[in-house]
Specification:
The structure is a homotrimer.
Chain A lengths: L3 H16 L13 E10 L11 E5 L18 E9 L10 E9 L7 E10 L4 E10 L5 E11 L5 E12 L3 E12 L2
Antiparallel strand pairs in A: 1-3, 1-9, 2-3, 3-4, 4-5, 5-6, 6-7, 7-8, 8-9
Main location (chains A, B, C): secreted
Pfam families (chains A, B, C): Dirigent
Subunit structure (chains A, B, C): Homodimer.
Chain lengths: ~180, ~180, ~180
């Protein structure tokens, strides 16, 4: 390194090095981690106690706790503990549990609000991922927020893209969840 | 660039350049984006099914689903799909929907807890903003957390300052929401 | 500063200076702030209206609003306004309130999901801390997400480690909450 010119080059090199020294900190518009899961919800209807993974626990005045209410289920709150699988087969071996609640919150279309966690305790993943967000069910693909995580997902943030992969009347639905973390730690 | 001195100046210049190369990443105490909205809540009381935008869906043992409960409504959960407007006029054209829940959670004063989303799908804004936080209703101005966003509000975080702009008995209230994003992406 | 060598040293020094110029922004795996609190929950059972700090407000079809339901309380939603203390004594002077909800969401073990805030308004702390996450109650120590804060906890994020410090049947429990902030602003 003999001349000011080579110094300048060196400095500019350092500049870019430093710029990229905070990889998770720059606004990256591509995910630092990407995971796809499915989860399966079977709602209690008064007769399927053994198979049900969720139950209605709140209803508007015109509803009850075994049949989803009129007016697009507006006001029904369901609590769930749903199996998470790697593919879209309900009978696949679960890799974790989706635990939380959803409630229907519109009177003129199917829309829900979600607050839940993915809970993992396997060789592959240990820890939790926490989600909240609006779910306009009739839209093919919709985004909710990944607001935090623990364990393997310590402090992670991101976006989860949800698609209804299947639904059978008011008893069963399956969601595909494409989790894109943009802050990974 | 002929002397070590000019080099030193150049380096110091670079230093500040690099320091400010992560604008969203430094702790900025002024918002990178600021939006003000109003939303309007008309709670179902058994007789206003057409106008109601929210409904009681949970109540304590001493309550019911058409009248807010005694003891400062402690234990009442309401689910809502409320119109968002740019001004404080209930009849203004909505620019989005506020969807989620609130519940009253104190026995000796009016306090609520909020979990909801702003859902936009217009020329001006597309995407969602997700909020949670405590709402001590009797305090003039109170802050909740903006924990995430999608679409135009991808990965945003911030603070929302809420003020009760109007309320009429137990049937109608209007909130002014001043959203200050401090992480904008 | 006479030689290229000393320049190089100076530049390398600057490099590290710049690298550490974003202290909160680098992924730090040690907390920037650490707080420990206890909070105390006395659930309403139909006879303890004066002492109760929480109430069942949602239940599955097989439950009711004064007794926690069969099947590990699956589907019970409770709303709470619990005193926060600095030690594990229920009679200690509260330093704030824990306000929000929990619901039991598993049929074959005790598991809950939490959405709540710590609300402080004292000489020591002013502001709120917002939490969500899965609470596998039978695990000794479990982590939930701190997704935001206001006031003294403006924009903070972190992890809260929860331990059941005491529980007495279905009436009283006390949680120890060890809050570790990793983003402090």
């Amino acid at each position: 390194m003999k001349s000011p010119i080579s110094f300048a080059i060196f400095i500019i090199f350092l500049f870019f090095l430093v710029s990229s020294a905070h990889p998770g900190m720059q606004r990256q518009y591509y995910p630092c981690k990407n995971l796809v899961f499915y989860f399966h919800d079977v709602i209690y209807n008064g007769q399927n106690a053994d198979n049900a993974t969720s139950a209605i626990v709140g209803a508007p005045q015109w509803g009850n706790l075994t049949i989803l209410a009129d007016k697009f289920h507006f006001g029904n709150i369901a609590v769930f503990d749903d199996p998470i699988t790697l593919d879209n087969n309900f009978h696949s071996s679960p890799v974790g549990r989706a635990q939380g609640m959803y409630f229907y919150d519109t009177k003129n279309t199917f829309t829900a609000w979600l607050g839940f966690s993915f809970v993992f305790n396997s060789a592959q993943h240990k820890g939790t991922i926490n989600f909240i967000g609006a779910d306009p069910i009739m839209v093919k693909s919709r985004d909710i927020s990944v607001v935090g995580g623990t364990g393997d997902f310590f402090m992670h943030r991101g976006i989860a893209t949800i698609m209804t992969d299947s639904f059978e009347g008011d008893v069963y639905f399956r969601l595909r969840v494409d989790i894109k973390f943009y802050e990974c730690w």
